[in-house]
Amino acid sequence: MSVVSTRAGLPVLFAMLALPVSGSALAQPQDAVQTTVYGAPPADLSGMSEGPEVEGFILARSQEKIKVASADGTSTIVHISDGTEIRASKGFLGVSRSALGADSLLNGLPVNVRTVQWGNGLVASRINLKSKDLKTAAMIRNGTAQGFAEQTAATEALRGRMGDIDKYNIKSTTNVYFGTGRSALSARAKADLCATASDAEAMENALMLVVGYTDSTGSQEFNQRLSEKRAGRVVNYLQQACGWKPYRMLTPTGMSEADPQADNYSAQGRAQNRRVSVNILVSKGLDGL
To answer: What confidence tens digit (pLDDT) does each residue in 125-155 have?
Structure first.
């Protein structure tokens, strides 16, 4: 596992993460999936053509739409209407389900979304949550456990104490590396990620910030998408394979060619820059609790 020292560029990232999604610098690359429909989505979804089923975790949300990141690193924007059913499984084998409101759609929650076509976009006809995630959401709403800030997925509180989301102590940074133009995780990267999750689990009040990077090969637009895809792959693996809880993850981001670890003039330097950095953080207001 590669653990490196803190880089000067990270405080800038924290400041970006503290902004609302709609107004932050992150909103530009993360909203690469565009729709061309206008107005509020319809409440009556009957008779509309069935769209694809989307499964993943909520990466960002606004009043009328959510952005879902899938396991393959892609993201899909889905509109929410008054006709959208939001349900959570409960009981044995999830047979019984309870209805929820749109305020339960918190950043970081795993979801399964059934959609219908609306112009060139998608509207959610039904959103399913799992029972364990419903319990987490209930704790967040009641303020008894660490929660998601609605627009940034940053922590609002942990154990009844408020933390300053802009000020963290960085405990360690683990880098995992990728091939040119690739976003697939190597066997070593997978092992390093789960080892990092284990290290973080042993720390009180630890959070994770995942940031994707590329080398200088390719266009800026391609590299931005690739850095986001790499970050999404790492987040999904940490949560799905390593057991890291979604509500303990700050909003992941892609930084393209920014903040290189080495020069891009040599193959060795470019290899060091094709990375995702996993930062273990503790809010200064909570550190040492």
So the answer is: 999 877 666 555 455 444 433 333 333 333 3
pLDDT tens, residue by residue, 14-40:
443 433 333 333 333 333 333 334 468
Measured in residues, the chain has a length of: 289
Give the chain's domain count: 2
Torsion of CA 53, 233, 287, 132, to 10 degrees: 30
Q: Evaluate whether residue 150 is within a structural domain.
A: no
Decide if 289 is inside a domain.
no
CA angle 196/201/204 to nearest 5° reads 125
CA distance 205 to 209: 13
> Which residues lie closer than 8 Å to 51 by C-beta, 6 or more apart?
114, 115, 116, 117, 122, 123
Q: Yes or no: say if 96 and 51 are a contact pair by the CB < 8 Å rule.
A: no
Asked if 32 and 136 sit in the same domain, the reply is yes
Beta strands 121-129 and 85-90 are parallel
Alpha-helix runs per DSSP H in 111-256: 131-142, 187-201, 220-240
CA–CA distance, 156 with 79 (Å, rounded to integer):
26
Q: What are the DSSP E strand ranges found in 110-178?
A: 110-118, 121-129, 157-158, 161-162, 168-177
pLDDT band with cut points at 50, 70 and 90 for residue 4: very low
Q: Which structural domain, as residue segments, surrounds residue 111?
A: 27-142
CB of 37 closer than 8 Å to CB of 119: yes
